[in-house]
Amino acid sequence: MERRTKEELRAEIERLRTQLTVYEAAMKKAATNIHPPADLHRWPHPCRKQLSLERDRFYKVLDQLPALVYLQAPDYSIPFANRTFIDNFGSYRNAPCYRIIHNRDTPCDDCSTFKVFDSGRARKWDLHDKDKDAFFEIHEIPFADSDGSPLVMVLGIDVTRRRKTRLALQQSEEEKRLLLAQLEAVPDGLVLFDLDGKILWSNRHVMSLMKLDKPLQPGQVCHGTICRHAVCTDCPVQPCIEEGVFQERELLGQDGRQLHFRCYPIRNDKGRVERVILNISDTSRNFNRRINHLRAGQLAAIGELSAGIAHEINNPLNGIINFAQILKDNPEVLRQHPEIPERMLSEGERIARIVSGLLGFSREPDDQLQLIDPRNLVRDVLLLIETQMRNEGIRVEVEVEPETPLILAQPQKLEHVLFNLLSNARHALNARFPLPDKDKQIRILIRRQGNLLQFRVEDAGVGIDAEHLPHLCSPFFTTKPEGEGTGLGLSICWQLVKEHGGQLHFNSAPGHGTRAIVDLPLQPPR
Fold first, then answer.
1. Which of 283, 290, 332, 505 would be 260's cystine partner, CB 3.0–4.6 Å?
2. What is the value of pTM for the model shown?
3. Do residues 247 and 236 touch, judged by C-beta distance below 8 A?
4. Phi-psi region of 153 (alpha: psi -120 to 50; beta: other; left: phi over 0)
5. Above 60 in pLDDT, residue 305?
C-alpha cells in the first residue's frame, strides 16, 4: 500500500464518514417514504398502481448504489438484493441469508436481523469478510413488503478503505513514535531544519551538548539558540540548504570540549532538498586519542632516528674535540690555520640545529597556526633523517618551484606528515633495493596548484597493489610485514592533513613506486 501523509489519511477518513452519513440519511428517508400503510388494500386501484411504480423506481435506485443492499424476510429468505450485493456474494435466489452471507448451514445463533424484527428499531454492526479481507458497516432498518408483511432492509457499506486507512494512520503514528524514541536514544544531538533555517524538531541531547538552559522550540533559528551567536560566521546549516551538499565543522566548546558538526540534506522523491538535519557529537575523546596516537608516533619516530642522530651529532662533535685538542697542544697552529675557530663554530651550529630539530619534533603538538616556509619545513625534517638515508644508500632530491608561497599551518603536525611519508618511501626502497642502486632515490616536489600548495613524495620502491590503495589511511591497516608497522602512521597523517583543510592521496602500482600527494589550501579553514 502506498504511503501517504497523515493529512491525506485524515482527509480520506473524513470523506468516507461524510459518504456514510449521506447513505444513512438517504436509506432512512427512502424506507420511510416506501413503507406501505396498513390499509393499503383499501386504497383505490390507481393509488396502489402509483405506489407500485414508486416502489419499482426505489428498487432501481437501490440497484445502482455502490453499497450492499438487500431485504430479508423472517424466514431468512432474501426477496431483493442489489447488484453490489450480487457482485460480492453471488445469486441470492432460493438460498437463506446465513448460507449466502456467512456460508453456514444453520441460522446464526445471535442473528442481529431478528433483533430488528423483535424491537422494530434500526441496528448497526460490523462485518469482516475474512476471505476477501473486506470490512462492511451494516445498517439494518425495519421495512415492509407491498402486502404489509415485515421485512428488514440491510445496508452494507464497504468501509475496507476507511479501515485500512485508519490502520495505516495508526501504523504511521506508531512508526513515528518508534522513530522518535530511537532518535532520542542516539547519544548525539540532532536538529531538523526547514529551508528557512528554522528548527522543526530536536532531541534532548542537544541541551546537554550545547549547555542550553531550556529545550529548543520549533520555529527558532539556530543562531542565537544553539551557538548563541547573533550570526554564525561558519554555519554548516545554511550552506547545506543552499548547495544541497554535506557540510561539517569543528568547534571548540567553552568548556574545552571538541564538538563536531555535520549537516546532511534530506531530499524528496524529485531530488530536491526539503529539510536538513544537523548532527552534533562530542569528539573530545577521539580528539585526545588522535593526539595520543600522534604522540606515540613521534616517540616511535624518535626511537627509529636515535641511531642516525647519534651518528650525525658524533661526527661534528669529534671534529670540535679534535680542533680543541690541537689548539691546546699547539696554540701557534692558529697562525697557519686561522679557519679552525670558524670550522669549530660551524660544527657546533650544526649540532645545535640537529638538537633543535629533534626537540621541536618531539614537543607536544601545538594547534597555533604559524606562517611557515615550505622549504624550511622540508629542511628541518631532512636534517633528522638524512644520515639514515645516506647510510642506506638513498638519495633525496628536493625540487621547489620558484615563488612558492608561504603557508599558514601548524609546523609540528606537517613535519610529522612529511616524516611519515619519507619513512614509508625509505622502507619501500629498501624492500626493492637491499643494496645501493642508481634508482634508489626519493624525490620531494613542492609547487603551487591554484589555491593549493602541493607536496609530493615520490619513490621507486615496491609499490602498492590497487586493492590496497583505498585502505591506506584506515586505522591499523598496513602493507608492511608483521611486526614492522602499526597501521597508524598514514591514518594519523590523513587526519592531520584533514585538520588543515587538505587532502592526502596516493598513486602507485606494484614495481613502479609510489607517489604520495598532500594538497593544502593556502588559507586554512577557520
1. 283
2. 0.41
3. yes
4. beta
5. no
